[in-house]
Fold:
Amino acid sequence: MTLGGGHINIGPAGHYRFVILGMPHKGRKELTPMDRILRVNMSSLTATFEQAPERYRNLGGRALTSTIVADEVPATAHPLGPSNKLVMAPGIVTGTSAPSSGRLSVGGKSPLTGGIKESNVGGLAGQKLARLNIKAIIVEGAPSAREMYVLKIDRDGAALTPAGELVGKGMYEVDRRLWEEHGKVGIIGIGPAGEMKMAMAGVSVNDMENGPGRYAGRGGMGAVMGAKGLKAIVVDDSGTRPLRAPNETAFREATRKLTNALRSHAITSETLPTYGTAALINVMNEAGGLPTRNFSSGRFEGASKISGERINEVVKERKGEGRVGHPCHPGCVIRCSNIYPDEEGKAVTACVEYESDWALGANCGIDDLDSVAEMIRICNDVGLDTIEAGGAIGVAMEGGLLEFGDAKGAIDLLNQVGQGTPVGRIIGGGAALVGKALGVERVPTVKGQSMPAYEPRAVKGIGITYATSTMGADHTSGYTIAPEILGVGGRMDPLSIEETKAGLSRDFQAVTAFVDSTGDCLFITFATSDIAEGLEGLIDSVNAVLGTNWKADDIVEYGKQVLRTERAFNQRAGFTSAHDRLPEFMAREPLPPHNTVYDVPERMLDSVHNY
Amino acid sequence: MPEQREQPTEVYLYGKLRRFAPQKDVSRDSIVKLSVRDGDTIESVLYRIGIDPEETSNIFLNGELSSLGRAVSDGDRLGVFPDDMALLYKQYFKKRR
Structure:
């Protein structure tokens, strides 16, 4: 059944043309990039294109998903109910030739945290949606029967078809079958965990080899997609071309600056393509901040065995399909991904990156890289957030369900998640649920979401971000561009040290919210932190697309507005300052090797969002 | 432990700097053990091992991100990363001088 064609898309006078969707685009001239919203109603099984409201004009990525969620989802909605919505949006520059800019934001009310969620992913789909002039997809309602559907989007419109034999299948098979049927399309999908509406279910996006390992992993957006009865979205951008900015000359100059910065900075041009993000395993271990055995130590004696250096060596030794310096989407100049090979050189999964490697490795006391890679493969197939999966297994080990270091047991648990056994469903509910089921106090979560791979007792600043992020414990909320480059030095010269730290976290969170809205990969900030021209390139590439004239201060304000929107939603959902806290055990248990506790005062945490 | 004063300083080397250690396998720790002298700094220890500080990036002394001029004592642990292996959210780490 083909649904949703024939709607008339009307833009502001002078800038847009009438476009009849669902009809051949004969005589179509240029649309301003990404002016359409595709609304998919799963109750009526209709898909309609709408003109994006003018007030969404400058919004993309996270700014857009969070604004739409705040506008359209009642904050008290049940995350798995028909009032919640799943919103996806490519970033402002996604689909253009800007380097490393293929990010897609996936938002909604989170079944894991109960608050607003934006989860950010690479892979093929973001660029293709943008090139189809789709600014956002809003999936709403819920099917009356327990049916699953596939949404196909192409130049001619959008259509829903029953998912048929894809129901219950893992993402490797789903991606393979959908490419067989549709060619080299972008695929956004959920595995069995999403179908079972587990709180740690992520949303997969395929990569250039059609592997499913790009995940909007955090916060259970896969469960929301499952609750909508949507197994997959097929994005076919055949016949489209990379988007051009209205001011293409300025855009090219800006992206040249950004590309130069990425190609000259040691982290983005050497460390990440050579060792991947897992280079951090040894670095954080030396820093005494690599959470080990469910956050009971900051050093792991097996760190070297699961390090980025070891991954690089395994790829070289085993040859075959293994690869480092692997891009997750076309046009990435950083290429931090890898393809991890088995002993015969056959690809196990892409990719073994720092968070996954740590979560299923050090955090579970597991130092066998092949086992870690196998666990990541299962997560990618079943459709799980690897951070939450490792967090949940770590708590299960703490609770005595299995021993720390038991790789076979951990693999079995992940397989049980995919099978939906009772134990598997508890694990699939996330670390906090496992803690409740097993009577464990040492549960490293904030707002119900597992902490990532930086120990807050050793790295106190990131603890402020974990505590106060609108997303729950989230390292990607606090990537940063150096305050001195941003020219926010005045605010860095405060009355007290405490306010400085709070101010730093505030600015980090604000800038991150902006970058998450551009569609640029957050890793560009390693280069834009140090290279002023790179930061100019980042901001001016956005200016050239939007016709704005933003400077550094403006992007901080843009980010703050995103945070205000998210905070307001969370407050309406019942969040208070009591939710902006780290778990109590961190204030009581000293963490080796530094033997420090988390002692950042509550008043500092509460001052982060004073703006 | 009275013998603690005589504990050597351990320098953990990573990446291409492992070539300065007897054990170079990346799956294990590559450690250079040495006794420090009065007035030794991270920089002088590196030179003694044969490492050009230009070839380094993140350096940790007892788990603290540190600059080259910091004093080193017996029993300290140094972790030294090469210039192609830096990867920190540096804003979160205060460099000790």
About this structure: Chain A touches chain B at residues 266-267, 270-272, 274-275, 277, 279-280, 282-283, 286-289, 298, 304-305, 307, 309-310, 312-313, 454, 458-459, 461-462, 478-480, 482-483, 504, 508, 526, 529, 593-594 (CB under 8 Å). Chain A has 23 helices and 19 strands.
